[in-house]
Amino acid sequence: MARVSFDALPGWTTANADAALQSFRRSCAVLSSRADDAALSGVGYAGTAADWRDVCANASGDAKSFFAANFIPFALAAPGDGLFTGYYEPEIRGSRTRQGAYQTPVHGMPSDLVRVDLGQFIPKFKGERVSGRVSGNTLVPYANRKEINLGTKAPVLFYTDDAVALFFLQIQGSGRVVFTDGKTGRIGYAGENGRPYTAIGRTLIAEGVLTRENVSLQTIRAWLLANPARAQGVMEGNESYIFFEERPLGDAALGATGSLGVSLTPGASLAVDPRIHALGAPFYLDAGGPDPVQGLLVAQDIGGAIRGSVRGDIFFGFGPDAERRAGAMKAPGRLYVLLPNAVAARIGESKTFTP
């Protein structure tokens, strides 16, 4: 982790930081509510909540000037380039009753699911969680996707008419629902079954129906829809299952509430590994690919597949363009964390510090 100047950030001179400043201000509402000695990051490099109070209080005016005056960038090192993907807010159709095409249940949290924060028992596992159920005096793995599809104690929030659309909504973690009576709402992540996540794109590549060059959200979905007899079996190859909760639509221009507890900002919110990084902190991203991304984003969310110090998932928002960009986003790149001047001063000019 090496200290760099803002001028060293690729594309900084032409970057627009206005959305990132608004996103950061939403983060500050959470950071400012924490105790002074609360550590922000899993490994402590980002200081405590007290270190962020002044920068939060100054979060106004010209966006780029604010960040340049109050933060120091640090380049995050990784073996080779990091990996950056994208996610978006999908929309499904829903019915409060099981009728016609509306046969696929959308489940809320089951009453018998237990979530355990391993860090409460073994400090080195801070940020690691497992989910299961109690059998006798033993915590055992919870049902996998196939078993849940066959029957579960989880309550039914509503029914949808598209099992494939629900599958992709589970991958994104949250989305919108339009009910048969015309009402619209959001459904957000409430919990998961704790089973391992398997990218079904890899399954389809292994079977020879897709290639590494053409695999994307769009091509995977097209194959599932064109092969209904095999679709459920392929989807059940991913044992991970997400449970939801209903939420008000709120501001339609913003995304659902992320793990930090604030609404996500299209193009300015990032999912990171919370075992390493500080939720609420700004990051500068330089990712390649067919649709390159350079700019400031704020860490406000997490994801089961987001692991490592130079790994991020970019929130692209809602709508067809957001879906297109998120589905195609899988590119190498570099990541820089912005730390308040006081925190940066304690780190110094170290070229060896690693989060």
Task: Describe the protein in words.
The chain has 355 residues and is an alpha+beta fold. Helices cover 24% and strands 28% of the residues. The strands form 4 sheets. It has a 6-stranded mixed barrel with strand order 3-16-13-15-14-17. Strands 4-10-11-12 form a 4-stranded mixed beta sheet, with helices on one face. The termini are close together.
Q: Regions with pLDDT < 50 over 5+ consecutive residues?
A: none
**Terminal-residue CA separation:** 7 Å
Question: What is the assigned CATH homologous superfamily of the largest domain?
Answer: RlpA-like domain
Beta-strand portion reads 25-35%
Please name the CATH topology of the largest domain: Barwin-like endoglucanases
Given the structure, what is the number of helices?
A: 10
Q: Could you say what the CATH architecture of the largest domain is? A: Beta Barrel
- Assembly form of the protein: single chain
Written as H for each helix and E for each strand, in order along the chain, the element string is EHHHEEEEEEEHEHEEHHHEEEEEHEH
CATH class of the largest domain: Mainly Beta
* Strand order, largest beta sheet: 3-16-13-15-14-17
Q: Give the % helix.
A: 10-25%
The best one-word shape is globular
Q: What is the CA-atom radius of gyration, in angstroms?
A: 21 Å
Main sheet attributes: strand count, strand direction, barrel closure: 6 strands, mixed, barrel
| Total E-strand runs | 17
Structural class: alpha+beta
What's the number of structural domains?
2
